Structures are given as structure tokens and as C-alpha cells.
Amino acid sequence: MKLVVTVVGVDRVGIIAGVSTVLAEHKVNILSINQTILDGLFNMIMMCETETEEAKDLTSIQDALTQLGNTLGVEIRAQHADIFLSMHRVG
């Protein structure tokens, strides 16, 4: 399963490290990262992949990232990449 992880909030030390750690704990591989900081606002999007296809595993990842986001004061979302990819497919 491919995932798109987004992080938005005020920049601070440990955001990338925290997100990377949570993903590693859930056996999620980071394929690419695009990160910017503009006027102190942190914005990151990651393309990730995991071998599991089970919805319960995605929910577990989402819950862990939400908890981390609450701790860091940023919003973190993990969504199935198919949501984005299907918008660009022509039937």
C-alpha cells in the first residue's frame, strides 16, 4: 500500500525525526520527501510504502501520527495514495 503523509504547522526541532520514527515503527518505507519552511511554517509531504493492505494497519498508522502531531503541535495526515492517484486516471 502506498501512503501520502502530510505535515503542516509551526516549525520546530524534531518534526522529521518524529514522523520518520513513527513510520519506521509501523514498517513504513519513505520513498520521497518534499519539505519547505516559509515564514516559520513547516510543510512536508512524503510518499511512503508498506507491505500491508489492511485498513486496520492504516488506522494504526494514522492514530500514531495524530498522537505525534498533537505532541509536536502540527497536523499530520496519512492517506492511501489511491485517493490521489484515482483523481488523475481517465476511464
Secondary structure elements and pairings:
Elements: E1 2-10, H1 15-25, E2 29-38, E3 41-49, H2 55-72, E4 74-80, H3 82-85
Antiparallel strand pairs: 1-3, 1-4, 2-3
Helix pairs in contact: 1-2
Quick structural summary:
The protein is an alpha+beta fold and 91 residues long. Helix content is 36%, strand content 38%. The chain has helices spanning 15-25, 55-72, 82-85, and strands at 2-10, 29-38, 41-49, 74-80.
Describe the protein's architecture and organization.
There is one protein chain. This protein has 91 residues and is of the alpha+beta class. The protein has a single domain, classed as Alpha-Beta Plaits. It has three helices and four strands; from the N terminus they run βαββαβα. It has helices at 15-25, 55-72, 82-85, and strands spanning 2-10, 29-38, 41-49, 74-80. Strands 2-3-1-4 form a four-stranded antiparallel β-sheet. A hairpin with a 2-residue loop joins β2 and β3 (41-49).
